[in-house]
Amino acid sequence: MAVHERVREFYNKELIELQYADLFKEERFIHSPQGADISVEYPPNSDLRNVINFCANNYLGLSSHPEVIAAAKNALEERGFGLASVRFICGTQDWHKELERKISDFLGMEDAILYSSCFDANGGVFEALLTEEDALISDELNHASIIDGIRLCKAERHRYKHADMRDLEHHLKETQNKRFRMIVTDGVFSMDGDVAKLDEICNLAEEHDAILMVDDSHATGFVGKTGRGTHEHHDVMGRVDIITTTFGKALGGAAGGCIVGNKVFINILRQRSRPYLFSNTLSPVVVGATIKAIDLLKDSTALRDKLEQNAVYFRKKIREAGFEIKDGFHPIVPIMLHDAGLVQAMARELYAEGIYVVGFFYPVVPRGTARIRVQISAAHEKHHIDTAIDAFVKVGKKLGVLK
């Protein structure tokens, strides 16, 4: 049998097994701009359905903000679509440096370096800064991009139990002989919406002379009093050494990411970080629009405040309806159903009711913790949230989740 036939046979079998195990991931096709109200084709080749979107990372509604769109159009006309180069050859425009200045200033850090995504940022940070003489100590629930970045690095690897400060301290003591130790944590964990204990982690990092890195992708722009992130929320600005984050969520939702931190780290990354050195520079369209997004957030907390109010309202109403949710304040609201089949059934029934959500189950989350992950946005109005609550109650009763 020819190799391509064996490959096709193997992977077709795997796809069938995934479908049988209820692990198959299907795409939905959106025929409208991203926002609270969207037009979706699902399943493929079906009629379009107008639904309310409750599963986007568009936390501040900036993906379709008129000023952000205008900035993108201006950037396209003034600076072109792309640069066809990496940064150190001929891919750096003055706007790239302006964005690096603005994001480092916004987050209260010395300098910044841009990447095509935060996934690339996390893939390029560890190998460039650490060697086999060092140790990485990572929260066990950290994002896949952190896990993949750590795999590329020769540093000794340690995982501490999620948010367990006693276990983290154990690993710090265990690695005292290493040249450098780096603690790595998500600022906000994307499946549960819980926030890392940065105040306690900072104390341990300082006590044990360790570097602290935080991925704040689900916090930048809206967590903290002025939206600076989890380090602002915990009042530890100036005590975190490195922050990685994305422009692809709250800051417009398009693409791009960055690493911000002490100039020493950023200077080394410019020389050694492979995703930065060997990937095309960020499109001027994304750069111009992201600069505008940051300016909007520096001028006003109105969108951040509206998002907070929406999240509080939804959490209160969904809990009063009788659903089990994870505690917290974040606009990620996991509605716990625990059963993969039930999660998929509820997502389908909610879609039929005009509510677009997605179910998460093993291997994305541990077995027995299947959930609908609702994500609230500043783009949602009260009528959007009330409509969703009514639909959840109706479907919950139909499927026996509620009495």
| CATH superfamily grouping of the largest domain | Type I PLP-dependent aspartate aminotransferase-like (Major domain)
Helix content: 40-55%
For the termini, the CA-CA separation is 56 Å
Q: Could you state the oligomeric state of the chains shown? A: single chain
Account of the protein in words:
The protein has 2 domains: 21-53 and 301-398, Alpha-Beta Complex (Aspartate Aminotransferase, domain 1), CATH 3.90.1150.10; 64-299, Aspartate Aminotransferase, domain 2, CATH 3.40.640.10. It has 403 residues and is an alpha/beta fold. The chain is built from 15 helices and 14 strands. 43% of the residues lie in helices and 16% in strands. Strand 8, helix 9 (230-233) and strand 9 (242-246) form a beta-alpha-beta unit. The protein has helices at residues 3-20, 66-79, 87-90, 94-106, 118-129, 144-151, 165-174, 198-207, 230-233, 263-272, 274-278, 284-299, 302-320, 340-352, 382-398; strands at 29-30, 37-41, 48-53, 111-115, 135-139, 156-160, 181-186, 211-215, 242-246, 257-261, 332-338, 355-356, 359-360, 370-375.
Describe the SSE topology.
Layout lengths: L2 H18 L8 E2 L6 E5 L6 E6 L12 H14 L7 H4 L3 H13 L4 E5 L2 H12 L5 E5 L4 H8 L4 E5 L4 H10 L6 E6 L11 H10 L3 E5 L14 H4 L8 E5 L10 E5 L1 H10 L1 H5 L5 H16 L2 H19 L11 E7 L1 H13 L2 E2 L2 E2 L9 E6 L6 H17 L5
Parallel strand pairs: 3-12, 5-6, 5-7, 7-8, 8-9
Antiparallel strand pairs: 1-2, 2-3, 4-10, 9-10, 11-14, 13-14
Helix pairs in contact: 2-12, 4-12, 5-6, 5-10, 7-8, 13-15
